[in-house]
Design a protein that fits this description.
The protein is built from five helices and three strands, in the order βααβαβαα. The chain is α/β, with parallel strands linked by helices and 85 residues long. It has one domain. A three-stranded parallel β-sheet has the order 2-1-3. The mean pLDDT is 82.
Length: 85
């Protein structure tokens, strides 16, 4: 079995624009086994709940991430430029 109860899960920030959504979904499916084994936690824009401040949620997820995966569409957005400041 792929579990390690003492280790914390690796946090993966998965971001995409609408153009990249199919790739994000495929990546998410590929990580399903690791998520079930609690070896990986994934975050995407779908993790944002109604009423939450998007910029704050994204900034926190980026800060906590061990691995950052972003599609080309997301990288081109102003969101990344805004978060750099």
């Amino acid at each position: 079995m792929l579990t390690s109860p003492s280790a914390r899960p690796v946090k993966v920030f998965c971001s995409s624009s609408a153009d990249d959504e199919a790739y994000r979904c495929a990546f998410d499916k590929a990580l399903a086994g690791l998520r079930r084994a609690r070896l990986v936690e994934t975050w995407s824009f779908r993790s944002i709940l109604p009423g939450e401040v998007v910029d704050s949620c994204v900034a926190q997820a980026l800060e906590e991430a061990d691995i950052i995966g972003a599609g080309n569409g997301f990288i081109r957005t102003t969101c990344i430029a805004t978060l750099r400041h």
